[in-house]
Amino acid sequence: MGFQERLLMRKIKKTADHKTDLYKLKKKKLEDSKTDAICSKESTVPNKINDKRRKECDEELQHKRQKLCDGAIDKTDNNETENIPLNDIKETEGTERVTFDSLNISGPTKKAIEDMGFTTMTEIQAKTIPLLLSGKNLVGEAKTGSGKTLAFLIPAVELMYRLHFKPRNGTGVIILSPTRELSMQTFGVLKGLLKYHSHTYALIMGGADKKLEADKLSKGVNILVATPGRLLYHMKNTKDFYFNNVFCLIVDEMDKILNIGFMKEMNEIISLLPKARQTMLFSATRTQQTEALTNLAVEKAIYVSTKVVGVADNITQGFMVCPSETRLLTLFTFLKMNKKKKIMVFFSSCSSVVFHHALFNFIDLEVMCIHGQLKQNKRTTIFFQFCRAETGILLCTDIASRGLDFPSVDWIIQYDPPNDPKDYVHRVGRTARGEESGGNALLMLREEELSFYHVLKRALKDVPVWEIKLPYNLHDIQKKVETLVARNHKLNLMAKEAFRGYIKAYESHGLKSIFDPSKLDHNLVAKSFGLRYPPNISDSDSRHRIPNRRERRRMMEEKSLYAEK
Ligand code: ADP
Ligand code: MG
């Protein structure tokens, strides 16, 4: 082969290689864009359509809704399954379990549920899903960990699917959650459920970037998970957020939403949403406030309740009598002995969580912590870290006691007392989530607080609560801790704040006759914070002091009234 020919051959090969590279690149880009679309399910097309087209789309949707209400589209693509009559469910209750397969739901939803590994429904799911699929307004009440999330998500996704809802129709379903962590969790389950669907979905919550959220909303988010304050903000301020087609409002943990002072937001949200919609209200406990919101949000609702509100049967519950001066040692010994387990420890104040977190990590007991004073991104990281962890210790305030689903927690320790039996139930509900798992709960009480055990026994009806005694001697680290706290300036300040937090929480306790602050010996309480002497309660520098539970609640109420205006 001559020189000219070789040159020509090289040129041809180079062009061919270049073309192959280009082709590969193009193919990869196409695949990437496909997986992106599946993962985020965010519409990439701006949802800006003119008024005439919008009206047409809305009318088309109204027509479909009407047909759906008339029962014309009550079959999904899976014609083999029949809707289960409600009577059947009542008969099979407790003996035979109803499977998801027997529900009249679409193939993509069934496949997603199968991927989650669930075959049979929990009691609340079996009782509510058929009713919700038929468009009923419902107030669902069931103990924590009973599977309420899927009970409302499955009907929401299914109804959306039956309506052929498109991004141009804007938002159709809104799911309200009390806390950011819970909304993230619900969003996670929703994502799993929409795996084989094409509807768009998004999460908007306090602490996140409002502009990014507004961008998402303007593209048309079909199913929206939100915290109340942030939702109201976007309803009022985001021009392209189209919520005229909301056909379903879901409120999860309704009692908690109202407890933390969101009643005003809820009123406004309800007044701005279309009246002709389905409303699903879920809660673990029923209160006067929840009744008030129910009356406001729904005209006619069916109440569905599974057993009395209480603790799951598969939790072993115990209490331990422990004097103030050995509380710290007892907790330390317990945690040290159970290092291979997954444990949550509840405290009554943020400052106490902060102090114990710093102290334990200092003396080589690795612990994590979550409380309301942490920045949102830190809270999110810890939440997911503890979710993934197989073992580990999480110190927390009641921020973690509602609705959050940390998988397979072995022990719930209530180091500081809950405010009442309802709070006890919520804290304990963090273990034994789902119907097949089990867990343990330990309540630590001082001798003077023992009558709380009797209150609890009455509230829990037949569920036994055993007295637990540590089978081993306490690690005697009291002197070591006291020296450490006396010498380390930062720890010393934290200990004093924690002491004040404990006393303040005690003073604002709901059950004054049992948790009587006048019966607290401050000298002995100080020992449980590694302090040799009790600090002056009023000494705290208010600029740096972490507010107590009542102050925090008041602040939250004020914040929710004025935030995002
Ligand atoms: P709740 O909202 O009632 O407190 P969740 O919806 O958070 O409860 O569910 C609690 C746990 O039960 C979760 O880990 C969830 O994955 C699991 N779960 C939900 N439905 C089922 C089911 N049908 N079968 C088995 N486990 C389920
Ligand atoms: Mg829940």
Question: How does this model look, in words?
Answer:
By secondary structure, the protein is an alpha/beta fold. It folds into two domains: 255 residues, P-loop containing nucleotide triphosphate hydrolases (Rossmann fold, 3-Layer(aba) Sandwich); 237 residues, P-loop containing nucleotide triphosphate hydrolases (Rossmann fold, 3-Layer(aba) Sandwich). The chain contains 21 helices and 14 strands. The protein has a seven-stranded parallel sheet with strand order 3-4-2-5-6-1-7, sandwiched between helices. Strands 10-11-9-12-13-8-14 form a seven-stranded parallel sheet. Helix 6 crosses helix 7 and helix 18 crosses helix 19. The longest helix is centred in the first third of the chain and has 38 residues. The protein starts with a helix and ends with a helix. Bound molecules: adenosine-5'-diphosphate and magnesium ion (MG). Adenosine-5'-diphosphate binds next to helix 6.
